[in-house]
Automatic annotation (TrEMBL):
GO terms for biological process: cell division; cell wall organization; peptidoglycan biosynthetic process; regulation of cell shape; UDP-N-acetylgalactosamine biosynthetic process. Residues 456-494 are annotated as: Disordered. It is found in: Cytoplasm. Pathway: Cell wall biogenesis; peptidoglycan biosynthesis. This is UDP-N-acetylglucosamine 1-carboxyvinyltransferase. The keyword Glycoprotein does not apply. The modification 2-(S-cysteinyl)pyruvic acid O-phosphothioketal is found at C118. It catalyses: phosphoenolpyruvate + UDP-N-acetyl-alpha-D-glucosamine = UDP-N-acetyl-3-O-(1-carboxyvinyl)-alpha-D-glucosamine + phosphate. It comes from the Bacteria. Its EC number is 2.5.1.7. InterPro entries: Enolpyruvate_Tfrase_dom, Enolpyruvate_Tfrase_sf, MurA_subfamily, RNA3'P_cycl/enolpyr_Trfase_a/b, UDP_GlcNAc_COvinyl_MurA. One of its GO terms (molecular function) is UDP-N-acetylglucosamine 1-carboxyvinyltransferase activity. It comes from Planctopirus hydrillae.
């Protein structure tokens, strides 16, 4: 198992090119088994999740090859299949459930394990099943597997709204299945994410008749067959946002090649509110992108993660890490996955001052982050810890970085290209930096802890509060703070 060793305090600088979007690649790969011919996919990222789904497809009888020189992924759909997606594979990644709709539509049967994936909160697939039943599927759940059968799916009116918004993977599943259903299907409260648009474009290139993808109402006129297709996956907007936040956190100057501003409008807006300079740009070879420059003085912010086109929940952890560095009180709320705050305890270990209140984190800054040992709990939390380590004083070690490898292609190499001091090594006690080793001969680390403790005043204890209203009308109690006369950060009014 690998770990990352990062020495912080170095501004990122240079150009970096985005990989293809993981969250577009996976549903498109799953949809390929509903297609009768070859799917030739460009810009599919080299990720652990892509490898996992490749194994799922191969277990179903598909043949998947990658041209190492071009990176192109070619999928030959199965000529026959058992229709069984086994637990041992599906448990590793939630997006594996996206094979359910394509299997059912083309082969009339599917047996798919209930999914796993990152531990970021309750994510049932009841909306997937509700949509497939509306299309005419017969479904039962038995011993942890979804058993689905249908002679021929038929069009239907389907509502996919849930308690926390639309379902992205559910929209992908139903849209793909409906492409081969008899008649017209209308999906209301559909997910609007760019990755859904990309899937719709792939299916239309294969002969589907889909309109409205990218809006809350998608209409699909079913066809008898989908044919082979070539398709290029869109750039990864979550990787783009992560790099933008890393540049801001290190006061860097980075050109992010292929970033699509129209996919990132809410992220650009909140970062500009914080004080980050972001401008559209292009490279010498004509590639579009975003030029991101950090600033010495940043502003606190209230930020809410919402379904697209809002700030993505997949960037909430990274924004939390950035706001730890900002003077004043910031509030970040996640209305998509209200329990997605497993990164907070690790940020606290680095010196952050954060308090949870329900679906919100209240952050007092600026924190003096110092390098230490931390452990990634999920994909985006790992990216947040990398950002915090890049901005921290001294060396940090991040363990369980296999989470990071699930969603970021060569992330450490790209950061190194931008000047970061980051090393990947085997997780072994002997590989620990000397600064993070506790030994009987040296108490340097203990002195460091005592120094931090002596100057730390809990920012939320016994403080008068005043109501603060978020943009959606909800209010919370916010501590009253005033700015200190020096640059050490906010002083709490007692």
């Amino acid at each position: 198992m690998d770990m990352l060793i990062i020495r912080g305090g170095i501004p990122l600088a240079g150009n970096v090119r985005l990989a293809g979007a993981k969250n577009a690649s996976l549903p498109i790969m799953a949809a390929s088994i509903a297609v009768s011919g070859l799917s030739q996919l460009r810009r599919v990222p080299h990720l652990a999740d892509v490898s996992t789904l490749t194994q799922v497809l191969e277990s179903l009888g598909a043949v998947v090859t990658r041209d190492l020189s071009t990176g192109e992924l070619t999928i030959t759909p199965p000529h026959a299949t058992t229709g069984i997606a086994d637990y041992d594979l599906v448990r590793r990644m939630r997006a594996s459930v996206c094979v359910l709709g394509p299997l059912l539509a083309r082969w009339g049967k599917a047996v798919v394990s209930l999914p796993g994936g990152c531990n970021i909160g309750h994510r049932p697939i009841d909306l997937h099943l509700k949509g497939l039943v509306a299309l005419g599927a017969r479904i039962r759940i038995e011993r942890g597997y979804v058993h689905a059968e249908a002679t021929r799916l038929h069009g239907a009116e389907i509502y996919l709204g849930g308690p926390f918004g639309s379902t992205v993977t559910g929209t992908a599943n139903i849209m793909t299945a409906a492409s081969l259903a008899r008649g017209i299907t209308r999906i209301s409260a559909a997910a609007c994410e760019p990755e859904i648009v990309d899937l719709g474009n792939y299916l239309n290139a294969a002969g589907a008749r889909i309109t409205g993808h990218g809006t809350p109402v998608i209409e699909i006129e079913g066809v008898d067959e989908l044919h082979g297709v070539e398709h290029e996956v869109i750039p990864d907007r979550i990787e783009a946002g992560t790099m933008m936040i890393a540049a801001a956190a290190t006061c860097g100057d980075v050109l992010i090649e292929d970033a699509q501003p129209r996919h990132l409008s809410a992220v650009i807006d909140i970062l500009r509110q914080i004080g980050v300079t972001i401008e559209p740009s292009s490279t010498n070879d004509g590639r579009t992108g975003l030029h991101v420059s950090g600033a010495a003085h940043l502003n606190p912010a209230d930020c809410t993660a919402l379904p697209y086109p809002g700030v993505p929940t997949d960037l909430q952890a990274q924004l939390t890490a950035l706001l730890c560095l900002v003077p004043g009180i910031s509030v970040i709320t996640d209305k998509v996955f209200p329990d997605r705050f497993m990164h907070v305890p690790e940020l606290l270990r680095m010196g952050a001052q954060i308090r949870r209140e329900g679906a919100s984190a209240i952050i007092a800054g600026p924190a003096h982050l110092s390098g230490t040992n931390v452990m990634a709990s999920d994909l985006r939390a790992s990216a947040a810890l990398v950002i915090a380590a890049l901005a921290a004083e001294g060396e940090s070690v991040i363990r369980r970085v296999y989470h990071l490898d699930r969603g970021y292609e060569k992330h450490d190499e790209k950061l190194r290209q931008l000047g970061a001091q980051i090393q990947r090594t085997t997780d072994h006690p002997e590989a620990l930096p000397e600064s993070l080793r506790m030994t009987g001969e040296s108490t340097m680390e203990q002195h460091k802890i005592e120094e931090i403790s002596s100057r730390f005043t809990p920012p939320f204890q016994n403080q008068p509060t005043k109501p603060h209203f978020l943009s959606d009308g909800y209010s919370i109690a916010r501590p009253m703070v005033s700015q200190s006369d020096d640059s050490s950060g906010p002083v709490v009014d007692l």
